[in-house]
Design goal:
This protein is α/β, with parallel strands linked by helices and 723 residues long. The protein has 27 helices and 14 strands. Bound molecules: the ligand N[C@@H](CCOP(=O)(O)O)C(=O)O. The ligand N[C@@H](CCOP(=O)(O)O)C(=O)O binds next to α9. Keywords: Amino-acid biosynthesis, Chloroplast, Lyase, Membrane, Plastid, Pyridoxal phosphate, S-adenosyl-L-methionine, Threonine biosynthesis, Transit peptide, Transmembrane, Transmembrane helix.
Amino acid sequence: MITIPSNCHRHLSSKARARGAETLTTSPLFRNPNVPFLALRHRHPGVVISCSTTAGGSGENHQQLKIRRPADENIREEAHRRGEASGSQGFSACYVPFNAPADSTETYSLDDVVYRSRSGGLLDVRHDLSALKRFPGSYWRDLFDSRVGRTTWPYGSGVWSKKEFVLPEIDPDHIVSLFEGNSNLFWAERLGCDHLGGMPDLWVKHCGISHTGSFKDLGMTVLVSQVNRLRRDPLNRPIAGVGCASTGDTSAALSAYCAAARIPSIVFLPADRISLAQLVQPIANGATVLSIDTDFDGCMRLIREVTAELPIYLANSLNSLRLEGQKTAAIEILQQFDWEVPDWVIVPGGNLGNIYAFYKGFEMCRELELVDRVPRLVCAQAANANPLYLHYKSGWADFKPVIAEDTFASAIQIGDPVSIDRAVFALEATDGIVEEATEEELMDAMSLADRTGMFACPHTGVALAALFKLRERGVIGTNDRTIVVSTAHGLKFAQSKVEYHSKEISDMACRYANPPVNVKANFGSVMDVLKKKLDVKVSSDKSAVGDACAATDEWVHNSQAETSLSSILPCIDEQTTNLTLYQSKEVIVQLVNVVNTVSLVNASMVWQNYTCIVSDSGLYATPSRVTPDIYQQLAVTVTVSCALDHYMTFLISLQNCQSVKETFDLITTFFCPQLELDLRVVNARLGLISTGVMLCLIFWVLYANRPQREEVFVKPYETKPQQ
Ligand SMILES: N[C@@H](CCOP(=O)(O)O)C(=O)O
């Protein structure tokens, strides 16, 4: 095993320091991610590596901070200045005929513009594995791990972090990267748990959460980088542009990478067969977009003819360079599992380059001893475009292209896949399986996955539907670590999701449709919908009727105070009024549920038939079960419910302060004048009465002061003098 001892550290020459060159420490965290170590020692001019001879190290902390690159230097220039990754470093790759016999000597430089072998077969990129094998698997694992998620050019990219396995000879200066890869490996916990019999180790590799929204970015960075290299010094090849036929994802990736590199791009699209989002991507990126009245297979034939005539470089996966980038998704999966190999990887298949790319990534890691085996591969096709599935079912007997029918998985609507041989090879080498999914199966699988927190594209739906079938048949076990490859971002396929959720698709039940609910703009309607949707009860306990009666009594006697019913009075606030009225209505609904088969109108009478006699000891003396007590409560309940029901409209009308104002206006306009007149008459009458009373008093006083008759005629016996 080749490692740098932990007590080994580099010193920079003072000249290198002055130029802003980096310092390097031996901690894995700070180790230079840019270059295989041995090559670095001999090549970098400003760097001296010194190693302590003391085994185990001195315990000193040799970690040093990285010196920031000069402010006027960008990351590409920094990589260029350091020159660490330029040149082949002893690694190389070339084209060979795909699956060539061991004694074949047919090879081509990657700088050649060639897509087919002499016999017309596919090509493959072959790496000098003996050079790569000079380093052990642990070395490559550590090197790749050390580069993840940085901004170091170009290794921050998930593709270029594996540069030695991809395009070892390209100069970083020629690389066109948008820091692709490093995509999310999504733990599909809920999908596995709720819908796949409790699968604890189900994952979705979201290759579509990427710059242009599909896995094509992984291959396109490699292809466009190579074209960039060919067009620039010193090769200066007269390549006028890069072209592809596409069902939408390849064209989006090609146009974005070409735009970034100032290279013209040309895309052939089957008219009306790709999503709007996919169509607008190359348009926005300035590509020459040809919308052709044929299907993808027709576009593919045309682009091959055109690229044979014009200096346009072919960007479809017929060009095996693309697969070198795409295979890094497989290496990334291994890396994300800390180099443990999953049991199954399920890949949607159309033109079939990607299933081979995954195989190649896994197999390369096995061969170079980063891991000890490869996973089993499943290729999933739409039943409407299933030439590989039919081929598999025939026992690989006889491949026949098909006319691909319309499918929601439009990116894999391909009947004559260019990489059919590669796919068969990959599946045979991994004891693989091919599955298919009908339109309903793929849309249901996609929508179900969405319900668990994803936003899958229909092609991912195809792979998920295959997973459901393989689980059902017991081929994939509960505890198998399984990866579903999600190839594109669901947002590119919003239209198909809209159709599904609107149940607009003929002959499809759309089982997981979740259409938006149109609701009137009032509180009660909104509450009704939410209550039904969320299956929640608005609080109103069983004694609501009793409470309501008590509260009503309280309010009648003290209407100005803040009582429990004061909230149903208008003009307090609309929100409170709304809630109270809604709760009142709920009481009625619940009571109606209680009375069950009888209506509010006749409930009291019907229930009377069920009343029973209860003995003093509390035992039922007759067969019925409604005790007189309960009957009384029920009867009151019904009466109050009827009242609430009857006055509901009125109560609702009161929720608006305006109606109360109008009522008061009426009173003052029509009743107040009459009241005033009546009051005046009453006052006048009261005045007359008062005057009368006063006169009576005066007369009484005057009359009382006159001498009385008895006083004039003295009584003889009272006035007789004494003798
Ligand atoms: N699904 C592809 C079809 C073209 O296939 P490719 O393997 O040549 O990229 C697309 O998105 O265009």
